[in-house]
Design a protein that fits this description.
There is one protein chain. By secondary structure, the protein is of the alpha+beta class. The chain folds into 2 domains: about 375 residues, TolB, C-terminal domain (Neuraminidase), CATH 2.120.10; about 250 residues, 3-Layer(aba) Sandwich (Rossmann fold). The protein is about 15% helix and about 35% strand. An 8-stranded mixed β-sheet has the order 32-33-35-34-36-37-38-39, sandwiched between helices. Strand 29 and strand 30 form a beta hairpin. Helix 2 crosses helix 11. It is globular.
Length: about 675
């Protein structure tokens, strides 16, 4: 990204290209995370003098400040900013005011708040002191200063009983379903000086993301009718004046457009510097927060949008205006991260504008993290890590990078990981191979295939690579068709084809690895979570290649799943119709349809309050395998949603997975 293209001052928050929670087994990724200090929430001050970041520790996140000019200077190196408050209180989501004099954070350190309640706190660069700005009850996140610095807006669920979205444990069913206990996320705006605030958006619209207009008078946002965890896939783009009593205007509706955006999803709405246009990421997306597609631009007053990256090689997952004719993007391209600029008139990459970060990720291993820009200093700040690089905070521009932190000095990955590529059915496919610890090429090793979630997601370059090396296994993490990283056509290549072309891509990759590395064909296993759990269940009925399979939070019967989960809207863009209009296309990709072909022993794991992939799907698969006489075991974890939270459950799950693979395909 070439910051010599001058633009207005605007901190930007980037969505990660891969939904890592669904790509990684939570148990093993949590264990690996303890080995490296992982910075997140990176924010550079608009004047380019300082960068703040969050370091997560047991009990929460701590806020750090480092000088960009001289990160080694003792007085500024890794300075800890600690708000007064109860022991173990945490901070997140730091954002700078446009004048660089104030840092806003969300923190549980507010002294008058109930335990765990986040409030907006302000840190003064002049005095070094914190003050509490808000006194609210509910869930706050995704803050953004208005460009004039007078207001702070954020997403707010008043009196929330759980985090917004479908990943957390769903509450027990109670009352009138679909009508009672519906929690709506709206935009709330507070005065940056007094904390006085009010709602911006209507009470019957659930808001997902937003961006300020350059004159601070309007906000562009994506929203849909509640319940919000189910309707993100049919959200529209709105704009609305922030003045009290205003009403929203629909700028763009993907459900009625005649463009290639018809029926697709949109994210990251951002006004141009002159306010005449709004850019967004648009494409086929399976999960809110796992953002990828093309960059589209629409008139801020409404109309049909234009795809300004129609021929891009990778997957844009974030965009920010650099000037009225140029947009900077974050692009995932076959396991590498690039930050090029796009000329919107020519609809192409600006020559010599790309900051190529190589085989790294700047997501920090989170669902959503931050990339922020100082136009004054012409610098981008980000947390970067990769298969051979431990996480650190960096700043850079085209042709220049500077490391600001040294949190993991001398830390090396426990095992070697390589990017692997192969051809199948006209597709060029990429993935990752992690070698067993203490690898000896003269020995034969077992291999575990880990299929990521989504399917609109990808496995990126991550420090430490895989999860199974320390137990003596190769681990293969493929990005088959349907994944991010190779353009929108590749993402859409598995529409109406779940479990077929993507499984063939995986098996072809496995053929390539067997021919190249010392892999024991009789000790190969398969696992995955969410969509990876579906792939594990479906592969059970399609191939006898694997010695055993572990399916986490999977889907065994798309027909029954449609009526059981809390997010049925996500399936329509992928299957082309609802299950009631085309039941056959859902049956085609259901493991239950072919259950008589099952032979492979399977461990099945799920949380009992999973709203995305409900436990009945795992019960159905388990029951069918028992009826077929196939060795199987079902483990249900209480009070867990799609992403496990209880450390005891995470540890137990890890132990069970290790034991199951060791029984059917031991490493020694």
């Amino acid at each position: 990204m070439n910051l010599f293209h001058r633009a207005h001052l605007l901190p930007i928050a980037a969505a990660a290209c891969s939904l890592s929670l669904l790509a990684l087994p939570a148990s093993l990724s949590a264990q690996r995370a303890e080995r490296a200090v992982t910075p997140s929430g990176v924010a550079i001050s608009p004047d380019g003098a300082f960068v703040t970041y969050i370091v997560g520790r047991r009990g929460g996140g701590a806020l750090h400040l480092v000088s960009v000019i001289d990160p080694a200077r003792t007085s500024e190196q890794d300075k800890l900013l600690t708000p007064p408050g109860p022991a173990g209180c945490t901070t997140e989501d730091p954002i700078w005011s446009p004048d660089s004099q104030t840092l806003a954070i969300l923190s549980t350190c507010a002294t008058d708040a109930k335990k765990g309640q986040e409030e907006v706190l302000l840190w003064s660069r002049a005095t070094g002191q914190f003050k509490q700005l808000t006194h609210l009850i509910g869930e706050l996140h995704e803050m953004a200063y208005s460009p004039d610095g007078k207001s702070i807006a954020f997403l707010f669920v008043e009196n929330a009983t759980r985090s917004a979205g479908a990943l957390d444990a769903m509450p027990p069913w109670d009352g009138v379903i679909g009508e009672d206990h519906v929690e709506i996320q709206r935009i709330y705006k507070v005065d940056a000086a007094t904390g006085n605030g009010d709602w911006v958006t209507p009470e019957k619209l659930h808001v997902y993301e937003f961006g300020w207009s350059p004159d601070s008078a309007k906000i562009a946002y994506t929203a849909a009718n509640p319940p919000g965890e189910n309707t993100w896939w049919i959200a529209k783009l709105y704009s609305e004046p922030v003045a009290s009593g205003s009403a929203p205007t629909v700028v763009f509706d993907p459900n009625t457009t005649t463009t290639a955006m018809h029926g697709l999803q949109l994210a990251v709405p951002r006004y141009s510097p002159d306010g005449s246009k709004i850019a967004f990421i648009g494409g086929l997306m399976s999960d809110q927060g796992s953002t990828g597609g093309d960059v589209w631009v629409v008139d801020s007053k409404g109309g049909e949008p234009t795809d300004v990256t129609p021929n891009i090689d990778g997957t844009p997952c974030f965009e920010a205006w650099l000037n009225n004719g140029t947009i900077g993007i974050v692009e995932d391209r076959r396991g590498s991260t690039l930050l090029p600029d796009v000329n919107i008139a020519k609809r192409e990459i600006v020559p010599n504008s790309t900051l190529d970060l190589g085989q790294t990720t700047i997501s920090g291993g989170a669902i959503k993290d931050s990339v922020t820009v100082s136009f004054t200093a012409r610098l981008i700040a980000y947390a970067k890590s990769g298969i051979n690089a431990a996480p650190e905070v960096w700043v850079g521009r085209t042709g220049y990078e500077k490391q600001l932190t040294h949190l993991n000095v001398g830390l090396k990955p426990a095992a070697r990981t390589e990017s692997v590529e192969w051809e199948n059915e006209g597709f060029h496919v990429q993935g990752w191979l992690t070698f067993p610890a203490n690898y000896n090429p003269a020995k034969k090793y077992p291999l575990i295939v880990t299929v990521h979630g989504g399917p609109s997601s990808s496995v990126g370059s991550r420090f430490g690579g895989g999860n199974w090396a320390e137990h003596g296994y190769f681990e293969f993490q493929p990005n088959p068709r349907g994944s991010f990283g190779q353009g929108e056509k590749f993402v859409q290549a598995n529409r109406k084809d779940f479990g077929y072309g993507d499984l063939r891509d995986i098996l072809k990759g496995l053929d390539m690895l067997e021919a190249k590395y010392p892999i024991d064909k009789h000790r190969e296993g398969l696992t995955g979570w969410s969509y990876g759990g579906f792939m594990s269940m479906f592969a059970e009925t399609q191939t006898d290649r694997f010695a055993t399979i572990i399916a986490g939070a999977g889907i065994s019967n798309w027909q029954s799943y449609y009526g059981e989960n809390s997010i049925d809207q996500w399936m329509v863009p992928f299957f082309g119709a609802s299950v009631y209009d085309d039941p056959a296309v859902y049956a085609k990709s259901s493991a239950i349809t072919y259950i008589h072909k099952s032979k492979t022993p399977m461990l099945i794991i799920v949380g009992d309050r999973d709203g995305e992939c409900p436990a009945p799907q795992s019960f159905e698969m388990w029951h069918a395998l028992k009826a077929m006489g196939v060795k199987t075991q079902l483990v249900i974890y209480p009070d867990e949603g799609h992403g496990f939270r209880n450390p005891a459950h995470i540890a137990d799950r890890m132990a069970r997975e290790v034991k199951w693979f060791a029984e059917y395909m031991p490493a020694k």
